[in-house]
Design goal:
The protein is an alpha/beta fold. It has two domains: about 1-35, no CATH class; about 40-245, 3-Layer(aba) Sandwich (Rossmann fold), CATH 3.40.50. Helices cover about 45% and strands about 15% of the residues. The protein has 14 helices and seven strands. The chain has helices spanning about 5-10, 15-25, 30-35, 55-70, 90-100, 125-135, 150-155, 170-175, 180-185, 195-210, 230-240, 250-265, 275-280, 290-295; strands at about 45-50, 75-80, 105-110, 140-145, 160-165, 185-190, 220-225. A seven-stranded parallel beta sheet has the order 3-2-4-1-5-6-7, with helices on both faces. It starts with a helix and ends with a helix. The model is unreliable at about 85-90 (pLDDT under 50). It binds guanosine-5'-triphosphate (GTP) and magnesium ion. The site of guanosine-5'-triphosphate has 18 residues, from α4 and α5. Magnesium ion (MG) binds near residues 57, 58, 90, 94 and 143.
């Protein structure tokens, strides 16, 4: 089942990629051993694109693919959480828009449900990113809706974390405080065709020089209109010149976060709330929850 898969992945064989991702997602026997053969020193640049629902992340991803392919770059895209019932409309839009890349020789797109993750990304997002890295795509784009924990997780996966905001995100900016500034390498003010865009851009700039974030490096802000591919050239140029520093404190802290998640997954394997409930139903003479837990 696993034979020859690694070599084919390295040749960017689409079938092998899809197959290995499915095997890993379903935790088929041999997954662990397979993952241990991956070589994590990959030349791929990983862009994480996060931000509130409907900010234009998929439209932006589409525009980025278009630009990168024009430059003859290979691109893999992992969209997380397309299954959310809240985004069905947008999903349909994504499908139509991104469909044009599905058979493109330089592009590989994979959608993942966010099932099972502990508050954040798909529980196999780390592993699947590592498989895509093995295929040495020039760029890997990970798109996910930013809701709490998932933003920190995406920052752990990405070399460049791009936080997409829109002029109407004013309130969100107030609420997010330092958190997003910690993880963002780039801010994108999308939908800059909206009249409030300049005001929003200036407010964001002001916040950045605000005392609260004083000793942090300045985070660049790009204005885009993803639907017209406006501003994408500049963004791509920035990304292509972006230096990845593997051993900065931030990178190591995020790597620790990643290791933590993998350990958590491993330790929690086979434990689900549903099964716990079933056990409780069976254990009808339960008198002490601590003893019950100790037996698990
Ligand atoms: N006016 C304007 N509309 C835009 C722009 N970018 C995207 N849109 C529209 O905004 C809507 C949402 O875009 P998506 O790309 O699906 O947004 P998303 O962030 O991927 O959404 P989710 O994945 O559901 O969180 C679509 O109708 C887009 O056409 C822009 O720059 N200007
Ligand atoms: Mg989307």
């Amino acid at each position: 089942m696993w034979e020859g898969l690694l070599e084919k992945i390295r040749q960017r064989d689409v079938k092998a990629l899809s197959r290995s991702i499915s095997l890993i997602e379903n935790e088929i026997e041999g997954s662990e051993q397979f993952l241990q053969t991956l070589n994590l020193n990959s030349p791929s640049k990983i862009m994480g694109i996060t931000g509130p629902p409907g900010a234009g992340k998929s439209t932006l991803t589409d525009a980025l693919i278009s630009k990168l392919v024009e430059d003859n770059k290979t691109v893999a895209v992992m969209c997380i959480d397309p299954s959310s019932p809240f985004h069905l409309g947008a999903l349909l839009g994504d499908r139509i828009r991104m469909n044009r890349w599905h058979n493109h020789p330089l592009v590989y797109i994979r959608s993942l449900a966010s099932r099972g993750a502990m508050g954040g990304l798909n529980s196999k997002a780390i592993e699947i990113t590592d498989i895509l890295k093995e295929a040495s795509f020039d760029y890997i784009i990970i798109e996910t809706v930013g809701v709490g924990q998932s933003e920190i997780e995406i920052a752990g996966l990405a070399d460049i974390t791009m936080v997409v905001l829109v002029p109407e995100s004013g309130d969100e900016i107030q609420a997010m405080k330092a958190g997003l500034f910690e993880i963002a390498d780039v801010f994108i003010v999308n939908k800059s065709d909206r009249p409030e865009a300049d005001l929003f851009y200036n407010n964001l700039k002001k916040m950045m020089i605000n005392a609260e974030f004083h000793n942090k490096k300045e985070i660049p802000i790009f204005k885009t209109v993803a639907t017209n591919e406006d501003g994408i050239d500049l963004l791509c140029q920035y990304v292509s010149q972006y230096q990845i520093h593997q051993h900065t404190e931030k990178k190591l802290r995020l790597l620790a976060e990643k290791a933590y998640l993998l350990i958590q997954q491993k330790r929690m394997k086979g434990i689900s709330k549903e099964e716990l409930m079933q056990s409780l139903i069976k254990d009808n003479k339960l008198t002490n929850l601590y003893k019950f837990v100790d037996n698990i």
